[in-house]
Specification:
alpha+beta, 3 domains, Rossmann fold, D-amino Acid Aminotransferase, Chain A, domain 1, 7-stranded mixed beta sheet
């Protein structure tokens, strides 16, 4: 798709969603709004909450008031003061449904509107942690032992002890990893943890605990290059990297990670390989545990990673000595370099 000549593109930063991470998504949208080059693009934040899609803009007569303009889903546009604005590109930053699981990607495919992240298949697969990890296991990627429960299915604490041992993690298999996660240490904690995870979605993943150093690596590709960012080491003050650790500062995030150059290179190479296996697009962040003997264990693949000012990806971009504005331009322009 070619970019219109001598015309600023209308970029929709699509945020919100229908999961518990909607608030985080809106913070990512504000981060992206500050990162993307406003001299090159017209930027708008499109909020999607259920069936309500809208653009919120400053009122024409008051600097202190804002007004919501509904988005026409027929062509992904909005009208303000009789002037219709059609979006040329969507930067999806919804952490959860419908922006991380392929639904919104399918909508944009139908309208032939380019967007920032993975396509329908890759988004749907990576959204389901259990399915994604089992798929990648077939390519030789090391993952922890795990099992999945769906609505209506149950398991006893004794069975969990036999299948994954304790401690283990019980969490939603679909969606983000900030809500509904419990580190379970005994049979008595299993059922409450399953109920908590099911409150966030229809699938629950029970995953064996892997002792080691948690790290995360961001990456993006364009037609011309592959850019793997410096790795971040995650040292949570809590028992694991939960919501408070992520967003309330109860964590040390060390970039670059305190690992050898050789191990860093191995992690970056594996990250690039996973990116290619899944046919990813845009910026992706992949989380790992480094266990004894420098074994790299996959935790999960994040295809719409957080983009607040303090999120991992902006940190890694800064550590790489790159300009985040130029990285965002790379992501956008790559979609218009295609025939």
């Amino acid at each position: 798709m070619k970019q219109p000549l001598n015309q600023k593109l209308n970029i929709a930063i699509v945020a919100g969603g229908d999961s518990s991470e909607a608030g985080v998504s809106l913070r990512s949208a504000r981060g992206l709004y500050s990162f993307i080059d406003k001299e090159k693009y017209n930027l708008y934040i499109v909020t999607i909450i259920g069936k309500e899609w809208f653009v919120e803009m400053q009122h024409t007569t008051s600097l202190h008031d804002t007004e919501k303009y509904p988005v026409d889903k027929n062509d992904f546009s909005f009208t303000r003061g009789g002037v219709k604005t059609v979006f040329d590109f969507a930067y999806i930053t919804i952490h959860g449904t419908p922006g991380e699981n392929g639904i919104l990607q399918g909508y944009f495919e139908l309208l032939s509107i380019p967007y920032s992240c993975c396509g329908v298949l890759a988004a749907a697969l990576t959204f389901d942690k259990f399915a994604c990890n089992q798929y990648l296991k077939g390519f030789g990627v090391k993952v922890a032992e795990s099992l999945v429960l769906r609505k209506g299915q149950g398991i006893s604490g004794r069975e969990v002890a036999e299948k994954t041992g304790f401690p283990c993690f019980i969490k939603p298999s679909v969606g983000g990893s900030s809500f509904g996660v419990t580190k379970v240490k005994s049979e008595e904690q299993v059922q409450p943890a399953i109920e908590k995870a099911f409150a966030e979605g229809d699938e629950v993943m029970i995953e064996a605990f892997v002792e080691g150093v948690e790290i995360t690596c961001g990456i993006y590709k364009t037609a011309e290059k592959t850019v793997a960012f410096p790795i971040t080491e995650v040292v949570s003050e809590n028992e694991f990297f939960d919501y408070d650790a992520k967003y309330n500062g109860q964590v040390q995030e060390i970039t670059p990670a305190r690992i050898s150059d050789a191990l860093t290179k191995r992690v970056q190479q594996l990250t690039a390989a996973i990116y290619n296996i899944l046919n990813c697009k845009g910026i992706v962040r992949i989380d790992y545990i480094i266990s004894a003997g420098e074994v790299i264990n996959l935790l999960e693949v994040n295809t719409t990673p957080g983009m607040t000012a303090t999120s991992f990806i902006p940190q890694q971009i800064r550590a790489a000595g790159l300009d985040i504005k130029e990285v965002m331009t790379d992501i956008i322009e790559n979609e218009f370099s295609k025939a």
